[in-house]
Amino acid sequence: MADAADVRRIALELAHVAEIPSDGFDFRVGGKGFVWSYPEREPGRKRVIRTDVAVLFVGDEGEKQALLKGEPELFFTTPAYDGWPLVMLRLDAVDVERLTELVTDAWRMRAPDELGSGSVELS
Questions:
Q1: Residue 11 near residue 25, CB atoms below 8 Å
Q2: Could you report the per-residue pLDDT of 3-12, keeping only the tens digit for each?
Q3: 31 CB-near residues (< 8 Å, 6+ apart)
Q4: What dotted CATH number matches 4-115?
């Protein structure tokens, strides 16, 4: 089982990562977000930042659908994310090893080529 502290630790171990001030967590590389707290929005209610759910960049619709269909206990989406290469991850359902893989993959896809996004660089 993982939590927001694990997301923070993993993200900050990657090269050139900036943490954006947030009520939860929000990490970027090269100015592009790759993992952040889920801003849950329900009609008629104020937005709630969910630190028990991470939004992850996944690259494309094919990868998104593969994750959603292959591991529905871990991943979900909402209509607000239709058309975006993003999935929500239930942190209490994932182990730290898998979380590390997912956050690192999201970082790799968003990092500019000049940062060496082809391989993981620790800061």
A1: yes
A2: 999 999 999 9
A3: none
A4: 3.90.1150.30
